[in-house]
Design goal:
single chain, alpha/beta, 6-stranded parallel β-sheet, 12 strands
């Protein structure tokens, strides 16, 4: 009954294994009786079907109390969890017109409870339920997923976790999922679940935040306006990121994520260096529409050539946008956000035949303050030593320095 024809996805590999099935003794006994009677005894078959159904809908091993929350927030004991609870308290719970139910969750409930008590103590949400889940405990994964309509996972670095087990469980149980990742290797890892989720009608949305999510929404809105008002597709989109003017350091979680990606080995570095690592490739063509190709020396392997306008090198320099008259430089998430937008462009084309643009070029930069560039130019003209930012226009930055 190990379901040889079932997709060998992460959760399925664990749950529909012989080892797991052996733990449900009534089903094992029923299977043995079916074999002994060669499936001819109707009562034996009925008993087998009852236990099989309990196994398939996880009844036999679940301690779920039957409560289903609109949203379960997982991994909320750290800094990102603090920000999320602050947003809930200050914005979502005050301004959302319709009420919604929610619970918090984490690997260590005591840490989650501590954060909850600090943020919601004395309010009507001070007793918000706290659920426990650990990836090495398949039963806790089942209970958590059964408790939610949507799971928001803020526990990173994602590429160092077994989060695909939770996502696959969501697909099996019809629960939607999103996270706030900014990691190319993580997104690549869960892409194998795309078709599985599509067939189940489940939405799996990684990078649904500042990294990936916001630039993608901006491009979507612009593409929508182009279609509705001009009947045209987008050919080029540029996103400029501007800071708030106050210096700030990265959180511990962000630093851990950067460390994980920078020490990921040659395969990870090669993946992150590919402008189309998440799909959405637009080949370079000559004026007759013939594709340019690269031919690998020694093997003869032929690959389509990237367009020069899509190369990451374009985002690694300090340069001037002649159209807008602004100066721009490398932005920390450029090498991630561009991949997300290109993948969305591909998915809109494949699933709805309505991409942002069939030949879309998307770039992202940090917008440099005009006054700073003016001061740099003035210092350069006066022969001072403060012209470094302006003089850096001829230089480049390594992607590893910006991850």
């Amino acid at each position: 009954m190990a379901q040889d024809d079932a997709p060998q996805t992460p959760f399925a590999k664990l749950y529909f294994s012989d080892e797991m099935i052996s733990k449900y003794e009534p089903l094992v006994t029923a299977m043995e009786l079916v074999n002994e009677t060669e499936g001819k005894d109707e009562e034996v078959m009925r008993d087998y079907q009852v236990h099989l159904k309990k196994y398939q809908n996880f009844e036999w091993c679940s301690n779920w109390d039957g409560k289903k929350y609109d949203i379960v927030f997982y991994g909320v004991s750290g800094y990102t969890g603090y920000l999320m609870m602050e947003y809930l308290k200050r914005v979502a719970l005050k301004k959302t017109p319709e009420p919604f139910t929610f619970a918090f969750s984490g690997r260590t409930p005591s840490k989650v409870q501590e954060m909850r008590d600090r943020e919601f103590g004395g309010s009507k949400w001070e007793d918000t339920p706290v659920l426990q889940m650990s990836y090495d405990d398949i039963y806790s994964v089942i209970d958590l997923v059964k408790s939610a309509k949507v799971i928001v996972n803020v526990a990173g670095p994602y590429m160092l976790t077994q989060g695909e087990i939770m996502i696959d469980a969501c697909v099996h149980m019809g629960v939607h999922y999103c996270d706030i990742s900014g990691e190319v290797p993580w997104t690549r890892r869960i892409m194998e679940l795309h078709k599985h989720a599509e067939n189940a009608g489940v939405h799996i949305i990684p990078s649904a935040a500042a990294a990936g999510g916001f630039p993608d929404l901006g491009v979507w809105l612009m593409a929508k306006k182009m279609r509705e008002e001009y009947g045209e597709e987008m050919r080029k989109a540029i996103c400029y990121q501007s800071g708030g003017g106050a210096s700030a350091g990265a959180s511990g979680g962000t630093l851990a994520t950067r460390s994980a990606m920078s020490t990921g080995g040659d395969e990870v570095r090669k993946m992150m260096a590919d402008p189309f690592s998440m799909g959405g490739f637009v080949p370079d063509r000559d004026r007759w529409g013939v594709k340019y190709v690269n031919i690998e020396f020694g093997t003869g392997k032929v690959t389509n050539k990237n367009r020069s306008e899509d190369l990451d090198a374009n985002m690694s320099k300090i340069s001037e946008d002649k159209h807008l008259g602004i100066w721009r430089g490398p932005f920390v998430y450029s090498y991630f956000d561009t991949r997300v937008v290109r993948r969305s462009n591909m998915l809109f084309a494949d699933l709805g035949n309505q991409p942002y643009g069939r030949n879309l070029n998307f770039m992202e930069y940090a917008m440099l303050p005009a006054e700073a560039m003016m001061q740099a130019q003035m210092a350069k003209g006066a022969g001072g030593g403060g012209g470094a930012p302006y003089e850096a226009s001829a230089g480049t930055y390594k992607k590893g320095d910006l991850v």
